[in-house]
Amino acid sequence: MSEILHNGSATGLPRQVADAYVDDLVALDPITGTYLGVAASSGSLPDLSPAGRAAAAELSRTTLARLDAAERLPGADSDAERRCARLLRERLNAELAVHEADEDLRAVSNIHSPVHSVREVFTLTPAETEEDWSAIAERLRAVPQALAGYRESLQLGLDRGLYGGPRPTATMIGQLASWAGRDDAASSFFDSFAAAGPASLRAELDEAAAGATAALSALHDWMVAVYAPAVEGRPDTVGRERYARWSRYFNGTDLDLDEAYAYGWAEYHRLLAEMKAEAAKILPGAGPWEALRHLDEHGTHIEGVDEVRAWLQGIMDEAIENLDGTHFELAERVRRVESRIAPPGGAAAPYYTSPSEDFSRPGRTWLPTMGQTRFPVYDLVSTWYHEGVPGHHLQLAQWTHVADQLSRYQAGVGLVSANAEGWALYAERLMDELGYLKDAEQRLGYLDCQMMRAARVIVDIGMHLELEIPADSPFHPGETWTVELAQEFFGLHSGRPADFIESELTRYLSMPGQAIGYKLGERAWLLGRENARAARGDSFDLKAWHMAALSQGSLGLDDLVDELSKL
């Protein structure tokens, strides 16, 4: 298929164009290949230099030209082809807008940067056989060149006056030190990872891991000596123009940011009233966050890292058993999901990784422990409905399951963040609607998670656009948002510990427009469900709607509401 498309003499329908794009992308980006489960990707890493990013952008432009031709062919107007074309065009244009603004040249973050991708991909690389580990050794040997390319991109950014934020820079420097084993004389990430390999490859793996660790150390030292001084005193916020560009990238639509900001405040006031009512059930006379602090000490806890991993697995297993056949129809391979503990040294937020295309690697949830061994459960229940079942796992594993009906692009590459995060937040609300939050403790934790997502909309838009705090706010009414006010607000309206709040705010500064997609995405899913229910009346079947919605692949928020309303 790719050869036909490459020679310029013919093209296919949009889904063929999309899948040919995936083939070509995997050749440029083996990290994407590993996420998809492409075995041939295991031994290499992408070119993270400006030249590598330019090659990826050129592939996007070429693909858009092929898509223009594909959409003129007979059959291109079918629902399946139309949805795929809609997503492919929107995603590639959003990615090109980011690239053409040279955002690649200042990609510094505590959670979402090329160096984070290089590290995380090792946790997903197959590591069962000696052949697997031989490929891992090859990938380890590719780390120095990959990080050198990333450094070249950052240096070009400095040369052009394009700076990453000082706060994400400082955080990433600390992460690099941790991953290189320099913060407390511990083993490096790569040394620890390679230690699990077979004895037959011990010398090769150790040598390759040492080279990868040395590359981490070299990047750390350059960031300390060159990058951090250059960005010192620069703003962490991005302003309206850059924010709108990134918001399009993460949400798949051009949002009315002022309307979204007002919606965030409306949700804040609604949720605050509900939280006060639940808090009174736990600690009469106490406010929501006083009640949550009480639960930190006196609420239900899980003791032990292994124990909390098993407990989280149990939450997902129970949800699958109870929901399959009643509110969802799950294929056997979608029913499999694993709970894992995240490697140390990353951000504080839990996350999910999708299954490989053949499901040989299952979907997995990951809990960063942040050094803790005692875990309050009040927020973990709804969080695992979000990360696992019926949240990210059911959606992303279902996409993979129906990839042959969609396209590889729709199922595994063209993800719109707000679509996925919106579904996961909808999943939390669904479990509340179905009565799975069994007591005031769990329900207050759920509402705290919802409040965090409303607060994200408020502070993410507010601080980056320097908006005014409304007059009816109980917090600094009439003042203009700053990073410092955002951190104070978030701390006052969250049950999370200080290190989590610090990590979250740094994430918002380095991923502008992403954090708002949870609440705005949930709103899109709820509106789509409401429209479909209104259109079908008494014949509306929630289980059938869920499965149809989860089987249509990714879409931006405007397209999502349109498609959901028709189901």
TrEMBL record:
Q: Which InterPro entries match?
A: DUF885
Q: Which domain of life is it from?
A: Bacteria
Q: What is this protein called?
A: DUF885 domain-containing protein
Origin organism of this chain? Streptomyces subrutilus
